TrEMBL record:
Binds 1 zinc or iron ion per subunit. SUPFAM superfamilies: Composite domain of metallo-dependent hydrolases (SSF51338), Metallo-dependent hydrolases (SSF51556). Belongs to the metallo-dependent hydrolases superfamily. HutI family. The keyword Hydrolase applies. Residues 58-373 form the Amidohydrolase-related domain. This is Imidazolonepropionase. Pathway: Amino-acid degradation; L-histidine degradation into L-glutamate; N-formimidoyl-L-glutamate from L-histidine: step 3/3. Its main location: cytoplasm. Transmembrane segments: none annotated. The lineage of its organism: Bacteria, Pseudomonadati, Pseudomonadota, Alphaproteobacteria, Acetobacterales. It comes from Falsiroseomonas bella. It catalyses: 4-imidazolone-5-propanoate + H2O = N-formimidoyl-L-glutamate.
């Protein structure tokens, strides 16, 4: 066998099967950017050009952050102060703050400024072992700014060693020029924004925020999803974050890649998601930061066999989180996920949430995206609060 590169003296979490797929004292070999061989070091066939000894580190598939709003201008620290003085996330949004204050800042920002602001945030995630990231628009709410955000996202991805996929979230909030005309804006998203964004190849998926108070109704969301279908783009949904709007069932009906947040999703909706192979993306950073108290129904998710992912939801309003490792800890402490659930949630299931089947596990034929950690057991990745134990990161075998 001939390999380009081999990693030895490592323990592996292959994520094969239903658990962590642990191989102690293992080795991984790469050829042409793909994993060519994985197994016990003692069984490694000869044929490596370059061998990296890992000093007993643990190797996981490169982490996947499957839900971020990485590209935005400004911040919402002032709004954070207001919340500390008693205002709620929803009340601030209804008063024209919240998402709309980031929309104002983003509309004023150049593409260069958006790229410059996003890069250090991306670097923080990459330093923890992230090798694939999803980035949404949604702070433009007009064609020009949505397109600028997505172009900025593509540039940010090209500037670093990372796979970056995009989602058009034009149906994120009602822009000021459509105040009181929510349905008209939803039609505009469906009839004008999605087709134009798709024609330029700027989006890999379409997202929306279904919420009866500050987002879109299920019916309006369906118009946007129908437009995505016409454009040949998969869909995903911010669903049941602040109340049960039957978002989980809607996402399942459209065969969505994922339904995200889902704190208030009911058991029927969760079961429908599982049947539709829609991944449930939990966002404990947002749950924590807006001090939500309604827990996602993890028992129903387990009973339905739902695939669960974890992501940062990195955004200026509800989750200014620059650490996917911290989400592992929050997912376990707040939602009582097991270590296996949490770690599968940032690897194989997060890849599934993006429709990517070529990563998220260590297996022959997969992309050779690896994250190396100086830890003594996988649980440490969930256990530490604010420790980055990442000591290496490999993208496509390099
Ligand atoms: O995922 N739920 C809506 N969207 C974002 C929040 C965006 C913001 O507050 O700027 C979320 O939590
Ligand atoms: Fe989000």
């Amino acid at each position: 066998m001939s390999f380009d590169r081999v990693w030895t003296d490592a323990h592996l979490c292959t994520m094969q099967g239903n658990g962590l797929g642990v191989i102690e004292d293992g080795a991984v070999a790469a050829k042409d950017g793909r994993i060519a061989w994985v197994g016990k070091r003692a069984d490694l066939p000869a044929g490596a050009a370059e061998t990296t000894r890992c000093d007993g580190a643990w190797i996981l598939p490169g982490l996947v952050d499957c839900h971020t709003h990485l590209v935005f201008a400004g911040d919402r620290a002032r709004e954070f102060e207001m919340r500390l003085e008693g205002a709620s996330y929803e009340a601030i949004a209804k008063a024209g703050g919240g998402i709309l204050s980031t929309v104002r800042a983003t509309r004023e920002a150049s593409e260069d400024a958006l790229v410059a602001a996003a890069l250090p945030r991306l670097d923080a995630l990459l330093a923890e072992g992230v090798t694939t990231i999803e980035v949404k628009s949604g702070y433009g709410l007009d064609l020009e700014t949505e397109a600028r955000m997505l172009r900025a996202a593509r540039r940010v991805g090209a500037a670093r060693d990372v796979s970056l996929v995009t989602a058009c979230l034009a149906a994120h909030a009602i822009p000021p020029e459509y105040a009181g005309r929510r349905a008209d804006y939803a039609r505009h998203v469906a009839d004008a924004i999605i087709p134009a964004i798709a024609a330029e190849g700027l989006a890999d998926a379409v997202d929306a925020f279904t919420d009866s108070a500050i987002g879109f109704t299920p019916e309006e969301t369906a118009w946007v999803f129908d437009a995505a279908r016409r454009a040949g783009l998969p869909v995903k949904l911010h669903a049941d974050q602040l109340r049960d709007d039957e978002g989980a069932a809607l996402a399942a009906r459209y065969g969505a890649l994922s339904a995200d947040h889902i704190e208030y999703a009911n058991a029927d909706g969760i079961a429908a998601m599982a049947r539709a192979c829609t991944v449930g993306v939990l966002l404990p950073g947002a749950y924590y930061f807006i001090r939500e108290t309604h827990l996602p129904d993890i028992a129903a998710m387990r009973a339905a066999g739902l695939r669960i992912a974890l992501a940062t939801d990195l955004n200026p309003g509800s989750s200014p989180a620059l650490s996917l490792l911290l989400m592992l800890n929050l997912g376990c402490t707040l939602f009582r996920l097991t270590v296996v659930e949490a770690l599968r949630g940032v690897t194989v299931n997060a890849a599934a949430a993006l429709g990517l089947t070529d990563r998220g596990t260590l297996a022959p034929g997969q992309r050779c995206d690896l994250a190396l950690y100086a830890i003594s057991r996988p649980a440490e990745l969930c256990y530490w609060i604010g420790r980055n134990a990442c000591v290496g990161r490999v993208v496509a075998g390099a």
